[in-house]
UniProtKB/TrEMBL annotation, chains A, B:
CDD domains documented for this protein: CBS_pair_Mg_transporter (cd04606)
Organism placement in taxonomy: Bacteria, Pseudomonadati, Pseudomonadota, Alphaproteobacteria, Hyphomicrobiales
Originating organism: Martelella radicis
Protein's name in the database: Magnesium transporter MgtE
Task of the protein: Acts as a magnesium transporter.
Residue ranges crossing the lipid bilayer per the database entry: 307-327, 385-403, 409-434, 446-469
SMART domains the record matches: CBS, MgtE_N
GO annotation, cellular component aspect: plasma membrane
């Protein structure tokens, strides 16, 4: 084995070791967790400081989530000042609140002071008003002002997510002065990719990327290499819209400005990635009929998040049932109708859900707009008719053969074509109308679409059968 | 109005102007589009170069998508060398392929040479093998080698998404030498936030952030400020797993290394943001029963993406129908059963979908693992039983009153409790088992869960009724 190979192997091993808190499936490994649990039980602070305190915030967050309920605050207490509060931004809200409530307020205050402002705001914003005021009052003046400024912006706004630490210099400084300033100032943000250029009242004039400072000679003035600020973001803009700006223009960070064009903070891509995730998560959950539920929620919270949707569904289910009730005599004379009617409804429900899924996503990503709406509606009509005819034939064959009644097959085929077409139209028009009316199509489309396909499915099938067989 | 106010207003107007290609809803504005269409029709190249060629790639992409089918390749031809091919990475695949096929191969080759390697690969990877080889053969040698290296990595791997342009320096250089090198080298990437430190064989030794170079004096050696490379990514790693590393550790960029630890490229957060989006999109579509469908797909493609799922659903619908068929005599004697049975099935289907949505998401984000699976199963059992009992009572009241038959209410209540519990168990156990078996729970859970709730709903309700009323 050559020297080089050995080195490679050694390096590979080292890399392995830095990740051994996880098992192969990406969960915290059982051995690591057992060691931590034991150390907590034995109050072995030295072990915890050695093995846990230096983990990356997200790793620490995973460990906290994997621990049992009582060990979590115990771990935080044992680590004391060594506990990186940032880890709490990586855990479920319920767990975060539990831990914060159990912390002595001095530890919380001193830990908060050490955080970047965006992380501190993230932790503070979930607390009750009184508790938050209490903690803010104990913070040093400048910290307090910074955090209060962020907290004064609306929930889920860019101002809430921004970091208030940034580097800003006047336009008449040279590259050399700027580099020296950065070398000497200790109060810089942890890492940054651009510096901002401001006038004496902090109005934003432009920005300079770090790599262009590095490529420029010392005597050049900042204003000579300054570029227009890419898409400054209004502090009151909703975080979802801010994320769309980041995505559209591939930004790494963006200046956040107040109503007067004054620089108040920086929004960075890592916060935006979290926002993108939250928003996609929200859409998926809303389409599935669950509210703002988290995995750590208990039975009561989970029931609360799902109850409303089930209640609405009960109402619509009885609506469909009453459509069936209209035809009870027909069913009494031909039981096969009762057997086949759920097939028609179910096929419509699924086809409608398909169209709705495509529509809701296209609206969320702004791919669906006035230019293509007409084309997409025509396309969905085509898909609905085509699938309607094909599945009408298939289902007619099976049903006709099953009940030895070709006419029944014809009736189910006619109902299928009607319902599959209705499903396609409901699947696209309902989300479009909800969106136009200002409602979130993800949250409410599902119930309208499946109710439509159930009602039309039952009504067309039972109605056509009643008319055709004259029963 | 003060001088300052005026200036603010003026600046606001300028900002407005840079965005006036969009209307208030975020779609390309009708006026702008009409101007472009007219210029294309009149072959007004000057207008197009002025108004369209300088748009940001994503804005240009939006304009292309908003144009009608024939105008798109015409616009690209008219812009000639002024057309930024990067815009094609921002449009739907179908539109991209149409435009590329219509481009003269010289224009395509020269435009590809101007792109960053990751964008060039993105465009090349969708082409047919022969066409791709053809274009690669016409590229300059170094470009060809670079792109081929990326294209040799598996589809959807980090190697495919990486940029092969990066800055790498030896450890014995000083900060001053490094800054001078960056000032003089013209062949640097467009923008970058870290530089890499490599040995003569390009094995990765470490990295230095640009801001730490800026804060360090010129005579300091790179190896003194070099840090361990954060989570270097194996070029063959799947892009989804690479994105998870970025998210977990809040990375802005990461080194991509081959099997021998040699630096082959850089993966940047903007590519990762796209991956995160694609993956969330994929989950939503799979849960909704649509395949890899795009909004620009025509009827044939859309039918193809949805047909399979509808076919499976037809099979399961007949399965549920045959369960009903078992009880045709009971239904003949008591038509109310046919009216109420869809209510039981529908409530179960919705409750099961809720649990399934939570489970599938938790599996995708790795929040659900061996530590909390047992707890979550217990929680879902609790939610299922609680909601089962509550809705059993509500539905029993309505049904008993409707049919003036309290015993029928009791029967429907019993069936509801059974089915809501079954829904909760199916909703969590089916995705867990599919995940364990290596299948994507998003793609296949839905059909299994709703089939389970339909079959159990019909069977329990009709079965209990048959037994209780002795029919």
């Amino acid at each position: 084995m050559s020297h080089l190979d050995e080195e490679v192997l050694k390096e590979a091993e080292t890399r392995e070791q830095t990740h051994d808190i996880y098992n192969e499936e990406g969960a915290v490994s059982a051995e690591f967790l057992a060691g931590v649990q034991q150390a907590i039980a034995e109050k072995d602070t030295a072990y915890l400081r050695e093995e846990v305190a230096n983990l990356h915030e997200s790793e620490l967050g995973d460990v906290i989530e994997a621990l049992d309920y009582d060990s979590r605050p115990e771990l935080v207490r044992l680590l004391g000042d060594e506990f990186d509060l940032t880890a709490l931004t990586e855990v479920d809200e319920a767990i975060r609140l539990d831990i914060i409530e159990s912390l002595p307020s001095e530890q919380l205050v001193s830990a908060l002071s050490a955080l970047d402002s965006d992380d501190a705001v993230y932790i503070l914003e979930d607390l009750g008003d009184e508790e938050r005021e209490d903690i803010l009052a104990k913070l040093p003046f400048t910290e307090r002002i910074r955090l209060t400024r962020s907290l004064d912006y609306p929930e889920s706004s860019a101002g809430r997510r921004m970091q208030t630490e940034f580097v800003a210099v006047p336009p008449f400084w040279t590259v050399g002065q700027t580099i020296d300033y950065m070398r000497e100032d200790d109060d810089l943000p942890d890492s940054f990719s651009q510096i901002f250029v401001v006038d004496p009242t902090f109005r934003l004039l432009g920005a300079v990327d770090l790599d262009s400072i590095l490529r420029t000679k010392r005597q050049v003035k900042i204003e000579a290499i300054m570029r227009e600020t890419n898409h400054p973001i209004d502090a009151e803009l909703d975080q979802e819209e801010a994320a769309q700006v980041f995505e559209q223009y591939d930004l790494l960070s963006a200046a956040v400005v107040d109503n007067n064009g004054r620089l108040v903070g920086v929004l960075t891509i890592d916060d935006v990635v979290d926002v993108i995730h939250e928003e996609a998560e929200e859409d998926i959950k809303r389409l599935g009929g669950v509210g703002d539920e988290e995995l750590s929620d208990n039975v009561v919270r989970a029931v609360r998040s799902r109850f409303g949707w089930l209640l609405i569904n009960m109402g619509t289910a009885f609506m469909s049932a009453s459509v069936i009730g209209l035809f009870d005599e027909s069913i009494g004379k031909m039981i096969a109708l009762a057997v086949l009617m759920p097939v028609v409804a179910s096929m419509g429900g699924n086809a409608g859900t398909q169209t709705m899924t495509v529509t809701v996503r296209a609206l969320a990503t702004r791919d669906l707009d006035i230019y293509n709406a007409a084309r997409i509606i025509r396309r969905e009509a085509g898909v609905g008719l085509f699938n309607g005819v094909v599945f009408a034939l298939l289902i007619a064959l099976v049903a006709g053969y099953w009940f030895d009644n070709p006419q029944l097959g014809g009736v189910v085929a006619a109902a299928m074509i009607i319902n599959m077409f209705a499903a396609a139209m409901a699947g696209i028009l309902i989300p479009l109308l909800l969106d136009r009316a200002g409602a979130d199509p993800a949250i409410s489309s599902s119930v309208f679409v499946t109710t439509t396909t159930d009602v039309i499915g039952f009504f067309s099938f039972l109605g056509i059968a009643t008319w055709w067989f004259n029963i």
